[in-house]
Amino acid sequence: MDGITSNLPDTALVTAELAWIEVGRVSDIPPAGARVVQSPHGDIAIFRTAEDEVFAIRNRCPHLGGPLSEGIVHGARVTCPLHNWVIDLASGGATGPDTGCTGTFPVQVEDGSIRLGLRLPVSAV
Amino acid sequence: MNMMAKTHEVSGRIKERLVVVGNGMAGIRTVEELLQRDPSRYDITVFGAEPHVNYNRIMLSPVLAGEKTFDQIVLNDRSWYENNNITLFTGEKVETIDRETRTVTSLSGRTVEYDRLLLATGSDPFIIPVPGRDLPGVVTFRDMFDVEAMLKKAADGGKHAVVIGAGLLGLEAANGLAVNGMTVTVIHLMGTVMERQLDEAAGFLLQSELETRGISVITRANTKAILGESHVTGVLLEDGREIPADLVVMAVGIRPGTGLAKSAGLTVERGIVVDDHMVTSDPAILAVGECVQHRGATYGLVAPLWDMARVCADQLTGKFDAAYTGSVTSTKLKVTGIDVFSAGDFSGGKDCEDIVFRDAARGVYKRIIVKEDRIAGAVLYGDTKDGAWYFQMLREAENIASLRDTLIFGQGFGGGASANPKAAVAALSDSAEICGCNGVCKGTITKAIAEKGLTSLDDVRAHTKASASCGSCTGLVEQLLELSLGDDYQAAAAAKPMCKCTHHPHDDVRRLIVAGELKSIPAVMQALEWKTPNGCHSCRPALNYYLLAAWPDEYKDDYQSRFVNERVHANIQKDGTYSVVPRMWGGLTSSKELRAIADVVDKFNIPTVKVTGGQRIDLFGVKKEDLPAVWGDLNAAGMVSGHAYAKGLRTVKTCVGSEWCRFGTQDSTGMGVKLEQMTWGTWTPHKVKLAVSGCPRNCAEATIKDFGVVAVDSGWELYIGGNGGMKVRECDFLTKVETEDEVMEYCGAFIQLYREEARYLDRTAPWVERVGLDYVKQRVVADHEGRKALHARFKFSQVFSQVDPWDERASKGVDAHEFAPLAKVG
Ligand code: SRM
Ligand SMILES: Cc1cc2nc3c(=O)[nH]c(=O)nc-3n(C[C@H](O)[C@H](O)[C@H](O)COP(=O)(O)OP(=O)(O)OC[C@H]3O[C@@H](n4cnc5c(N)ncnc54)[C@H](O)[C@@H]3O)c2cc1C
Ligand code: SF4
Ligand code: FES
Which CATH number describes the domain made up of B138-252? Predict the structure, then answer.
């Protein structure tokens, strides 16, 4: 049943400073698509909706760890490719009757480039 | 012995430890009720002897009949246990209870301490003590293990099944096995089937209906022995008759599972004896479900469990005044197309009156037993929609004197309510049970509709579970929606909308795309007034396909509307890696291809290599980043994508045929290769599989394929609409042709007709069943011009689809963003 496991526990990292890191351009991601940023927090999925909004959430479905970046994006939601849970991109929460939540990360978009807010371990920043 | 002392400190208070033995329907329902009352009171540990999470046992019948999958009947998956901090041990049977130390110990030696213990061990199927009962091939019908054994036997070519016992379980088993292609005989000791639930008249109607479905029923038959040496071969009856059997299902009854309680010294009679608060003879131990005996009664249906679970949860949370006073039960047979309902006592008696209604033309039989102006029992056959109404009045002992004259005609006539079903449903009280499978009352549903803003049947199913199991209460639930929402609720029209984003059904959308010359997903959504901004995971892939099929030369495939497998041209696995299946034309391979595969496996450390059921090789566990390089190496040896991930052509299986085989009549391998060369790369509503056998021995299994070809001396027999999978369907014979060219033309035409007219996610089997074989024959066989035109359209669309997607990605840089991370940080 184990999905993808690559996360460090967040508690080890929360004390670090929030850093804004440039990870790429909006145009690097297809509309209604997603790509992955590999980080010490595990894989983070950066979504671009059909309306060009950008969201960052942990790339692990709250159900059984499915890679959300591979799902079909509709509105500001993504459907997990493994068992069709629908995750709200803004909150990371499962919608409908399913319950569970995956972590979200702050993002900023400026002049088409995406910056991700991360608390990295001091040595890594 | 490893002791698991689990005392967790929570907000200054030590939690009590609740251990539940039995991960079945009653035990977990009690836990659900408990969590609703007080989610933090107990530290909960559940032991389940079965290897599964909690599932809806009553739905094993639809699983056996191929109408549901196991996943669809799971009630709580592992994340539910995790989210509620419940420790779950599956596949661990509890062996002993030590009441002195308040511990339970499982078969594997795990010991857990409890403050309160809940026994919910269900029942055990009764095995009649006849010789041969232990032979392989003799099964019961109680859990998923049994269902798997039955399905396997049917799949492995078992022909004859004998079911002993014609009660609810026996008949559902018989129906399921018949649906799976077995010849079924039911043996019953009594004179009438389901005699505990049905009177003779209804039993007769039911038996006749089963017989028209090819199930033979032998009543008044006593089993003497089960025959066989190393495996069951038949059943011997007392009167000397022998019935052949590859499988014997014992469904003669159940016994409460009391072994554990008995050895712990609890008071046990037929079941574990409990008081009105579900407490056993040891105040620390409670029991619920089929394992208990309450006021002398034991139960074998789910409805009583819901009541028991509520009282038990109250008891566990300190509400000591709640009491269980016993249940009246009703029964429905879950066999698709047969409506049977029964409740209460119908044995009659001197102060009972019968009200009977029969309608031979419609095959309806109804009987209400009235005693002292109250309903004592009801038996309904063929028309059961008023079952809930009668049952409600029965349970509440309502005086029916004023309804007496029209009672039998049902709710539409009774109670002064006009012949309007809505008024009738409106008249039901909040405690009226609507969904028997999941124990959901009217009040629960209307409350959920109001408080959660539910607007559709799907919503109600998701939030309340009502109508989510056997579905026989769907009509009632829809009426409740209508009552609650008024005009806002559009009851299901003749055809179902594609999904929640539109009110158009599939067929209309297909037609309007062509008629309105709609050529992109946004154009369709605009023109057809989609209700969501850009659809959902269900409609977008369907629209993408419909557009591709309608405008092969113009439409630009929208990869973001495809399921991940078709977007990245490999099959996603549960751990997020992918599998890679290169095409092997007609099942042929060569030393060069095998060498290239071997090299790729070594170079990319591919963990698993497997020969598939489709005559080719699957490489499992490939990392997404490696896919283009793996494909590049395979391309270099001349191999292309096998589209093992596609709603498109999968494989063309072949046998060796006349080239080598002593029986072969034609070159089946060569024919298969040609068909695969013509059809590869096509996109279809669902996957398509072909096969060619060289003679009627049919070693390529061509008669369960979407399009199958069997060579005979004088030419080729063509078959369509076959399907393996959950619901096996043997092909229909289409026609016989003489030349290879004709085989190609009929094949292309058939696939094109399917491409143009089926609904997305319909395999050819259900599609052929819907439109009818005659229709397909008319279009593909009788209409010569039409066939040629279909074939020509197929060839035209192939011009655009026969491009190897692996090569495009390995060497031409298509979709490079798919296979590399956006960034690496930290
Ligand atoms: C690999 C393979 C099993 C094997 O190791 O042999 C396989 C594997 C899967 N099958 Fe299959 N099926 C495989 C042959 C079959 C066969 C046998 C055959 O084709 O002769 C059948 C029964 C024949 C039929 O389809 O009518 C078969 C009936 C199914 C079904 C049931 C289809 C149905 O209409 O009822 C599913 C479920 C579905 O498609 O929705 C399924 C679905 C799947 C999926 C795609 C499940 C999934 O969604 O992840 C599996 C993907 C594995 C992967 O990641 O590669 N597989 N599957 C076989 C691949 C053959 C190939 O070379 O492409
Ligand atoms: C095929 C089928 C169809 C049915 N159809 C209907 C229907 O249409 N309507 C209806 O009302 N009822 C139906 N029933 C009956 C219904 O399923 C049962 O009434 C209900 O499941 C009983 O719940 P339970 O919790 O008491 O027992 P179960 O659901 O059987 O759960 C008991 C669980 O305890 C486990 N267990 C037992 N001993 C131990 C131990 N020592 N340690 C650990 N685990 C243990 C068992 O493995 C089992 O999983 C049907 C039953 C079957 C088998
Ligand atoms: S189907 Fe016929 S030709 Fe093919 S292997 Fe079997 S016996 Fe030989
Ligand atoms: S892992 Fe199951 S839905 Fe995402």
Answer: 3.50.50.60
Nearest to A21 among B463, B559, B825 (CB): B825
CA dihedral angle for residue A28, residue A31, residue A33, residue A39, rounded to 10 degrees: 40
Distance (angstroms) between ligand 2 centre and the Cα of B385 equals: 27
Please determine whether the domains at B8-123+256-316 and B649-801 fall in the same fold group of CATH.
no
Residue A65 lies in a domain: yes
Q: What is the CATH number of domain B411-481?
A: 1.10.10.1100
Would you say residue A63 lies in a domain?
yes
B79:A97 CB<8 A: no
**A56 in a structural domain:** yes
Check: CB of residue B586 under 8 Å from CB of residue B652.
yes
Residue B299: pLDDT over 70: yes
* Exposure of B788 in the CB half-sphere (CA atoms within 13 A): 2
pLDDT on residue B244: 96
pLDDT band at A11 (very low <50, low <70, confident <90, very high): very low
Residue-range domain boundaries for chain B:
8-123+256-316, 138-252, 411-481, 506-562, 649-801
- Token pair listed for B449: 């509709």
Q: Which two tokens stand for residue A15?
A: 């004390």
As a whole number of angstroms, the distance between CA B225 and CA B241 comes to 11
Best of A72, A87, A113 to mutate (most B CBs within 10 Å, chain B) = A72
Q: Which chain B residues contact residue A30 at CB under 8 A? A: 559-560, 817
Q: What is the whole-number distance in angstroms between the Cα of residue B703 and the centre of ligand 3?
A: 14
Q: What is the tally of structural domains in chain A? A: 1
CATH topology for B8-123+256-316 is FAD/NAD(P)-binding domain (3.50.50)
DSSP character for B449? Answer: H
Question: Nearest residue CA, atom 6 of ligand 1?
Answer: B612
Minimal Cβ distance to A82: which of B463, B560, B574: B574
Calpha distance B513→B524 (Å, rounded): 7
**What CATH number is associated with residue A81?**
2.102.10.10
Fold of B649-801: Sulfite Reductase Hemoprotein; domain 1 (3.30.413)
- Reference B271, options B282, B284, B262, B279; nearest CA is B262
At position B818, the amino acid (one-letter code) is E
The DSSP bridge pattern shows strands B116-119 and B285-287 to be parallel
Higher pLDDT, B197 or B585: B585
Q: What is the mean pLDDT of residues B136-155?
A: 96
Angstrom CA distances, B252 to B134, B141, B182, B195, stand at 16, 10, 20, 12
- Residue B661, annotated ligand binder? yes
Query: Is the CB of residue B488 less than 8 Å from the CB of residue B478?
Result: no
